[in-house]
Amino acid sequence: MSVITIAPASEAEVADAVREAAEKSTSFEIVAGGTKRAFGRPVSAQAVLNVSALSGIVKYEPEELVLSARAGTPIAQIQAALAERKQMLGFEPADWGPLFGVDAARGTIGGVVAANASGARRVKAGAVRDHVIGCRFVNGKGETIKAGGHVIKNVTGFDLPKLMCGAFGTLGVLTEITLRVSPLSERVAAFAIDCKAETGFRLLREAARLPLDASGLSYVSAGALIRIEGTHAAVEQKLTELQKQFAAHETKVLDATATKESFRAISDGSVFSHHATDIWRLCVPQASAYEALTASGVANSWFADWAGGLLWLGLPADDETATRLRAITARLGGHATVMRASREARERGSVFEPETPARAEITRSVKAAFDPKRVLNPGRMFKDL
Q: How far apart are the first and last CA of the chain?
Protein backbone atom coordinates (compact mmCIF):
# COMPACT_ATOMS: atom_id res chain seq x y z
CA MET A 1 0.00 0.00 0.00
CA SER A 2 1.42 3.39 -1.01
CA VAL A 3 1.96 6.01 1.66
CA ILE A 4 0.49 9.42 0.94
CA THR A 5 2.36 12.65 1.63
CA ILE A 6 0.75 15.74 3.13
CA ALA A 7 2.69 18.98 2.75
CA PRO A 8 1.23 21.77 4.92
CA ALA A 9 2.21 25.32 4.03
CA SER A 10 1.65 26.82 7.48
CA GLU A 11 1.53 25.99 11.16
CA ALA A 12 -2.28 26.16 11.05
CA GLU A 13 -2.33 23.54 8.29
CA VAL A 14 -0.02 21.33 10.36
CA ALA A 15 -2.44 21.59 13.28
CA ASP A 16 -5.40 20.77 11.04
CA ALA A 17 -3.64 17.71 9.58
CA VAL A 18 -2.62 16.36 13.00
CA ARG A 19 -6.05 17.00 14.49
CA GLU A 20 -7.70 15.09 11.66
CA ALA A 21 -5.25 12.21 12.02
CA ALA A 22 -5.96 12.02 15.75
CA GLU A 23 -9.69 11.91 15.09
CA LYS A 24 -9.23 9.11 12.54
CA SER A 25 -6.60 7.27 14.66
CA THR A 26 -4.06 7.43 11.85
CA SER A 27 -0.40 8.42 12.11
CA PHE A 28 2.35 10.45 10.45
CA GLU A 29 6.04 10.08 9.77
CA ILE A 30 7.39 13.63 10.07
CA VAL A 31 10.03 14.77 7.56
CA ALA A 32 11.57 17.97 6.20
CA GLY A 33 15.07 17.61 4.75
CA GLY A 34 14.81 13.84 5.13
CA THR A 35 18.45 13.48 6.19
CA LYS A 36 17.75 11.41 9.33
CA ARG A 37 14.88 9.16 8.26
CA ALA A 38 17.15 6.12 8.62
CA PHE A 39 18.24 7.09 12.14
CA GLY A 40 16.09 5.49 14.80
CA ARG A 41 13.55 2.72 14.55
CA PRO A 42 11.54 2.58 11.30
CA VAL A 43 8.24 4.46 11.52
CA SER A 44 5.14 2.58 10.40
CA ALA A 45 2.67 5.35 9.59
CA GLN A 46 -0.24 5.77 7.21
CA ALA A 47 1.12 9.05 5.81
CA VAL A 48 4.15 11.33 5.64
CA LEU A 49 3.85 14.86 7.01
CA ASN A 50 6.39 16.91 5.05
CA VAL A 51 6.97 20.24 6.80
CA SER A 52 9.75 21.50 4.51
CA ALA A 53 7.51 24.36 3.33
CA LEU A 54 7.67 25.85 6.84
CA SER A 55 10.92 27.58 6.00
CA GLY A 56 12.57 30.94 6.52
CA ILE A 57 14.19 33.08 9.21
CA VAL A 58 11.42 34.79 11.17
CA LYS A 59 13.49 37.15 13.31
CA TYR A 60 17.20 37.76 13.74
CA GLU A 61 18.65 40.20 16.27
CA PRO A 62 22.45 40.06 15.96
CA GLU A 63 22.95 42.51 18.82
CA GLU A 64 20.92 40.26 21.13
CA LEU A 65 22.49 37.04 19.79
CA VAL A 66 19.04 35.56 19.15
CA LEU A 67 17.52 34.05 16.00
CA SER A 68 14.10 32.54 15.26
CA ALA A 69 13.47 30.35 12.23
CA ARG A 70 10.74 28.06 10.99
CA ALA A 71 11.55 24.40 11.55
CA GLY A 72 11.97 23.53 7.87
CA THR A 73 14.66 26.17 7.35
CA PRO A 74 17.87 24.61 5.98
CA ILE A 75 20.77 24.81 8.42
CA ALA A 76 22.93 26.09 5.54
CA GLN A 77 20.64 29.11 5.13
CA ILE A 78 20.84 29.94 8.83
CA GLN A 79 24.61 29.55 8.92
CA ALA A 80 25.00 31.82 5.88
CA ALA A 81 22.89 34.55 7.49
CA LEU A 82 24.87 34.28 10.73
CA ALA A 83 28.23 34.32 8.95
CA GLU A 84 27.37 37.68 7.37
CA ARG A 85 27.27 39.10 10.90
CA LYS A 86 30.30 37.10 12.06
CA GLN A 87 28.15 34.80 14.18
CA MET A 88 27.43 31.06 14.31
CA LEU A 89 25.43 28.29 15.94
CA GLY A 90 27.63 27.55 18.94
CA PHE A 91 26.79 23.83 19.17
CA GLU A 92 28.21 23.19 15.67
CA PRO A 93 25.25 21.30 14.15
CA ALA A 94 26.14 17.91 12.73
CA ASP A 95 25.24 17.05 9.13
CA TRP A 96 24.61 13.30 9.17
CA GLY A 97 22.85 13.17 5.80
CA PRO A 98 25.75 11.57 3.87
CA LEU A 99 25.93 8.77 6.46
CA PHE A 100 22.45 7.75 5.28
CA GLY A 101 23.01 8.29 1.57
CA VAL A 102 21.53 11.81 1.47
CA ASP A 103 23.33 14.80 -0.02
CA ALA A 104 25.14 17.11 2.39
CA ALA A 105 23.66 20.47 3.43
CA ARG A 106 20.03 19.31 3.18
CA GLY A 107 19.40 19.19 6.92
CA THR A 108 16.98 21.58 8.62
CA ILE A 109 17.00 23.29 11.98
CA GLY A 110 13.97 21.25 13.02
CA GLY A 111 15.77 18.00 12.28
CA VAL A 112 18.87 19.09 14.17
CA VAL A 113 16.79 20.01 17.22
CA ALA A 114 14.66 16.86 17.05
CA ALA A 115 17.79 14.68 17.00
CA ASN A 116 19.83 16.93 19.34
CA ALA A 117 22.55 16.64 16.69
CA SER A 118 25.50 18.35 18.39
CA GLY A 119 28.97 18.51 16.88
CA ALA A 120 32.49 18.63 18.26
CA ARG A 121 31.99 22.00 19.99
CA ARG A 122 29.76 20.33 22.56
CA VAL A 123 32.78 20.08 24.88
CA LYS A 124 32.83 23.88 25.02
CA ALA A 125 29.34 25.07 24.20
CA GLY A 126 27.04 22.26 25.30
CA ALA A 127 24.42 20.40 23.30
CA VAL A 128 21.71 21.71 20.97
CA ARG A 129 19.26 21.74 23.89
CA ASP A 130 21.47 24.25 25.68
CA HIS A 131 20.97 26.77 22.85
CA VAL A 132 17.23 26.42 22.21
CA ILE A 133 15.42 29.09 24.22
CA GLY A 134 11.99 28.83 22.65
CA CYS A 135 9.88 26.92 20.15
CA ARG A 136 6.46 26.48 18.67
CA PHE A 137 5.06 23.02 17.98
CA VAL A 138 1.86 21.10 17.33
CA ASN A 139 1.22 18.24 19.72
CA GLY A 140 -0.48 14.96 18.86
CA LYS A 141 -3.90 16.42 19.60
CA GLY A 142 -3.48 19.12 16.97
CA GLU A 143 -2.96 21.85 19.56
CA THR A 144 -0.46 24.63 18.82
CA ILE A 145 1.89 25.30 21.73
CA LYS A 146 4.36 28.14 22.26
CA ALA A 147 7.11 27.36 24.75
CA GLY A 148 9.95 29.53 26.01
CA GLY A 149 10.50 32.90 24.43
CA HIS A 150 12.71 35.24 22.46
CA VAL A 151 14.68 36.35 25.51
CA ILE A 152 17.58 34.25 26.76
CA LYS A 153 16.69 34.86 30.42
CA ASN A 154 13.20 33.40 29.95
CA VAL A 155 13.40 30.28 32.14
CA THR A 156 10.01 30.34 33.86
CA GLY A 157 7.89 27.21 33.92
CA PHE A 158 8.62 23.73 32.63
CA ASP A 159 11.32 23.79 29.95
CA LEU A 160 9.41 22.32 27.00
CA PRO A 161 11.99 23.44 24.39
CA LYS A 162 14.60 21.19 25.99
CA LEU A 163 12.11 18.32 26.11
CA MET A 164 11.63 18.60 22.35
CA CYS A 165 15.38 18.27 21.78
CA GLY A 166 16.20 14.64 21.14
CA ALA A 167 12.54 13.56 21.12
CA PHE A 168 12.75 12.69 17.40
CA GLY A 169 9.37 14.23 16.66
CA THR A 170 7.49 11.82 18.91
CA LEU A 171 5.99 14.53 21.12
CA GLY A 172 5.24 17.32 18.67
CA VAL A 173 5.75 18.69 15.18
CA LEU A 174 8.20 21.55 15.53
CA THR A 175 7.12 24.59 13.52
CA GLU A 176 9.41 27.37 14.79
CA ILE A 177 12.58 27.47 16.88
CA THR A 178 14.36 30.29 18.71
CA LEU A 179 18.05 29.92 19.48
CA ARG A 180 20.82 31.88 21.04
CA VAL A 181 23.77 32.28 18.69
CA SER A 182 27.47 32.91 19.29
CA PRO A 183 30.15 35.23 17.88
CA LEU A 184 32.62 33.76 15.41
CA SER A 185 36.20 33.66 16.65
CA GLU A 186 38.85 35.75 14.95
CA ARG A 187 41.10 32.74 14.53
CA VAL A 188 40.83 28.96 14.86
CA ALA A 189 43.61 26.37 14.88
CA ALA A 190 44.19 22.79 15.96
CA PHE A 191 47.09 21.29 17.87
CA ALA A 192 47.75 17.72 16.73
CA ILE A 193 49.63 15.17 18.86
CA ASP A 194 50.98 11.95 17.35
CA CYS A 195 50.15 9.25 19.91
CA LYS A 196 48.40 5.95 20.51
CA ALA A 197 44.80 5.81 21.70
CA GLU A 198 45.38 5.19 25.41
CA THR A 199 47.87 8.05 25.60
CA GLY A 200 45.68 10.23 23.40
CA PHE A 201 42.66 9.95 25.67
CA ARG A 202 44.80 10.88 28.67
CA LEU A 203 46.29 13.89 26.87
CA LEU A 204 42.84 15.10 25.79
CA ARG A 205 41.69 15.04 29.41
CA GLU A 206 44.81 16.97 30.39
CA ALA A 207 44.08 19.55 27.69
CA ALA A 208 40.51 19.89 28.95
CA ARG A 209 41.86 20.91 32.36
CA LEU A 210 44.13 23.62 30.91
CA PRO A 211 42.85 27.24 30.80
CA LEU A 212 42.53 27.08 27.00
CA ASP A 213 38.74 26.91 26.57
CA ALA A 214 39.27 24.23 23.92
CA SER A 215 36.38 23.93 21.46
CA GLY A 216 37.31 20.48 20.20
CA LEU A 217 38.96 17.47 21.86
CA SER A 218 39.03 14.52 19.51
CA TYR A 219 41.03 11.43 18.64
CA VAL A 220 41.34 10.20 15.06
CA SER A 221 43.70 7.73 13.39
CA ALA A 222 46.51 10.30 13.27
CA GLY A 223 46.32 11.05 16.98
CA ALA A 224 44.80 13.62 19.35
CA LEU A 225 43.38 16.90 18.05
CA ILE A 226 42.85 19.95 20.26
CA ARG A 227 40.97 22.87 18.69
CA ILE A 228 41.42 26.37 20.08
CA GLU A 229 39.81 29.67 19.16
CA GLY A 230 40.04 33.36 19.96
CA THR A 231 41.88 36.46 18.83
CA HIS A 232 45.12 35.98 16.91
CA ALA A 233 47.11 36.88 20.02
CA ALA A 234 45.09 34.55 22.26
CA VAL A 235 45.49 31.62 19.88
CA GLU A 236 49.26 32.16 19.70
CA GLN A 237 49.42 32.18 23.47
CA LYS A 238 47.36 28.98 23.69
CA LEU A 239 49.55 27.24 21.12
CA THR A 240 52.64 28.18 23.14
CA GLU A 241 51.04 26.68 26.25
CA LEU A 242 50.16 23.47 24.39
CA GLN A 243 53.67 23.12 22.99
CA LYS A 244 55.07 23.52 26.50
CA GLN A 245 52.57 21.08 28.02
CA PHE A 246 53.10 18.35 25.41
CA ALA A 247 56.77 18.90 24.56
CA ALA A 248 57.53 15.21 25.03
CA HIS A 249 55.38 14.28 22.02
CA GLU A 250 55.60 14.83 18.29
CA THR A 251 53.19 17.66 17.49
CA LYS A 252 52.10 20.01 14.71
CA VAL A 253 49.68 22.90 14.23
CA LEU A 254 46.87 22.77 11.67
CA ASP A 255 45.88 26.01 9.96
CA ALA A 256 42.31 27.33 9.89
CA THR A 257 41.32 25.48 6.70
CA ALA A 258 42.67 22.11 7.83
CA THR A 259 41.15 22.61 11.28
CA LYS A 260 37.70 23.36 9.88
CA GLU A 261 37.83 20.39 7.51
CA SER A 262 39.02 18.02 10.24
CA PHE A 263 36.40 18.98 12.80
CA ARG A 264 33.64 19.14 10.20
CA ALA A 265 34.45 15.51 9.37
CA ILE A 266 34.49 14.61 13.07
CA SER A 267 31.15 16.27 13.79
CA ASP A 268 29.51 14.70 10.72
CA GLY A 269 31.05 11.24 11.12
CA SER A 270 32.35 11.58 7.58
CA VAL A 271 34.95 8.84 8.04
CA PHE A 272 32.06 6.36 7.71
CA SER A 273 30.33 8.03 4.73
CA HIS A 274 31.88 5.75 2.12
CA HIS A 275 31.96 2.58 4.21
CA ALA A 276 29.04 0.18 4.45
CA THR A 277 29.64 -0.79 8.07
CA ASP A 278 26.96 -0.40 10.72
CA ILE A 279 27.71 2.41 13.17
CA TRP A 280 27.29 2.68 16.94
CA ARG A 281 27.74 5.78 19.08
CA LEU A 282 28.84 5.03 22.62
CA CYS A 283 28.68 7.78 25.28
CA VAL A 284 30.76 7.02 28.37
CA PRO A 285 32.64 8.96 31.08
CA GLN A 286 35.77 10.48 29.58
CA ALA A 287 38.04 8.74 32.10
CA SER A 288 36.64 5.35 30.98
CA ALA A 289 36.96 5.93 27.23
CA TYR A 290 39.92 3.63 26.59
CA GLU A 291 38.46 0.86 28.74
CA ALA A 292 35.19 1.12 26.81
CA LEU A 293 37.02 1.14 23.47
CA THR A 294 39.02 -2.01 24.19
CA ALA A 295 35.99 -3.81 25.60
CA SER A 296 33.90 -2.92 22.54
CA GLY A 297 35.85 -5.28 20.30
CA VAL A 298 36.24 -2.71 17.51
CA ALA A 299 39.32 -3.01 15.28
CA ASN A 300 40.34 0.01 13.19
CA SER A 301 36.98 1.54 12.25
CA TRP A 302 36.48 4.08 15.01
CA PHE A 303 37.23 7.57 16.29
CA ALA A 304 36.49 9.56 19.43
CA ASP A 305 35.10 12.99 20.24
CA TRP A 306 34.32 15.05 23.34
CA ALA A 307 37.65 14.08 24.98
CA GLY A 308 36.70 10.42 24.71
CA GLY A 309 33.16 10.90 25.99
CA LEU A 310 31.80 9.93 22.56
CA LEU A 311 33.03 6.89 20.64
CA TRP A 312 32.01 6.26 17.04
CA LEU A 313 32.37 2.53 16.38
CA GLY A 314 32.12 0.58 13.14
CA LEU A 315 30.49 -2.58 14.52
CA PRO A 316 27.58 -4.77 13.40
CA ALA A 317 24.14 -3.92 14.74
CA ASP A 318 23.47 -7.46 15.93
CA ASP A 319 22.32 -8.89 19.24
CA GLU A 320 25.78 -10.01 20.32
CA THR A 321 27.26 -6.54 19.80
CA ALA A 322 24.31 -4.87 21.50
CA THR A 323 24.74 -7.11 24.54
CA ARG A 324 28.46 -6.38 24.71
CA LEU A 325 28.16 -2.60 24.32
CA ARG A 326 25.29 -2.26 26.74
CA ALA A 327 27.17 -4.28 29.31
CA ILE A 328 29.86 -1.61 28.98
CA THR A 329 27.39 1.23 29.54
CA ALA A 330 25.83 -0.62 32.48
CA ARG A 331 29.26 -1.00 34.08
CA LEU A 332 30.79 2.38 33.26
CA GLY A 333 27.72 4.58 32.81
CA GLY A 334 26.45 6.14 29.60
CA HIS A 335 24.49 4.78 26.68
CA ALA A 336 24.94 2.98 23.36
CA THR A 337 22.97 3.97 20.26
CA VAL A 338 22.74 2.35 16.85
CA MET A 339 23.58 5.25 14.56
CA ARG A 340 23.31 3.41 11.24
CA ALA A 341 22.02 -0.04 10.34
CA SER A 342 19.64 -1.77 7.96
CA ARG A 343 15.91 -1.35 8.39
CA GLU A 344 15.66 -4.99 9.47
CA ALA A 345 18.29 -4.55 12.18
CA ARG A 346 16.62 -1.39 13.48
CA GLU A 347 13.23 -3.10 13.60
CA ARG A 348 14.63 -6.15 15.38
CA GLY A 349 16.82 -4.58 18.05
CA SER A 350 16.89 -1.57 20.37
CA VAL A 351 18.29 1.43 18.54
CA PHE A 352 18.42 3.53 21.69
CA GLU A 353 19.63 2.42 25.10
CA PRO A 354 16.84 0.39 26.75
CA GLU A 355 15.23 2.31 29.59
CA THR A 356 14.92 1.17 33.18
CA PRO A 357 11.33 0.32 34.21
CA ALA A 358 10.99 3.58 36.16
CA ARG A 359 12.25 5.72 33.29
CA ALA A 360 10.16 3.79 30.76
CA GLU A 361 7.06 4.57 32.79
CA ILE A 362 7.93 8.29 32.71
CA THR A 363 8.47 8.09 28.93
CA ARG A 364 5.07 6.45 28.46
CA SER A 365 3.41 9.10 30.63
CA VAL A 366 5.01 11.97 28.70
CA LYS A 367 4.04 10.41 25.36
CA ALA A 368 0.47 9.96 26.59
CA ALA A 369 0.29 13.61 27.64
CA PHE A 370 1.60 15.00 24.35
CA ASP A 371 0.43 12.40 21.83
CA PRO A 372 -2.19 10.07 23.33
CA LYS A 373 -3.31 8.62 19.98
CA ARG A 374 0.30 7.92 18.85
CA VAL A 375 -0.10 10.10 15.77
CA LEU A 376 3.49 11.40 15.63
CA ASN A 377 6.38 9.18 14.54
CA PRO A 378 5.02 6.07 16.30
CA GLY A 379 7.74 3.63 17.32
CA ARG A 380 10.58 5.93 16.21
CA MET A 381 12.43 5.71 19.52
CA PHE A 382 10.85 2.76 21.33
CA LYS A 383 8.52 0.00 20.21
CA ASP A 384 4.82 0.60 20.95
CA LEU A 385 5.38 4.30 21.72
A: 23
Q: For 171-196, write each residue's pLDDT tens digit.
A: 999 999 999 999 999 999 999 999 99
Give the closest residue to 46 by CA, choosing from 11, 20, 72.
20
Over residues 70-81, the pLDDT tens digits come to 999 999 999 999
User: DSSP 3-state assignment of 4?
Assistant: strand
Adjacency order of strands within the sheet including 310-313: 250-254, 187-194, 223-230, 216-220, 302-305, 310-313, 279-283, 335-340
Under the banding of pLDDT at 50, 70 and 90, the label for residue 155 is very low
Most distant CA atoms of the chain, gap in Å: 68
The DSSP letter of residue 74 is B
Question: Where do the domains of the chain lie, and which CATH numbers do they carry?
Answer: 1-184 (3.30.465.10), 187-268 (3.30.70.920), 270-348 (3.30.70)
Half-sphere exposure of 332 (CA within 13 A, CB side): 24
Please report which confidence band the pLDDT of residue 1 belongs to, taking 50, 70 and 90 as the band edges.
low
Strand intervals (E) in 115-181:
132-139, 144-148, 172-180
Report how far residue 97's alpha carbon sits from residue 82's, in angstroms, rounded to the nearest whole number.
22
DSSP characters over 254-272: E-HHHHHHHHHHHHHTGGG
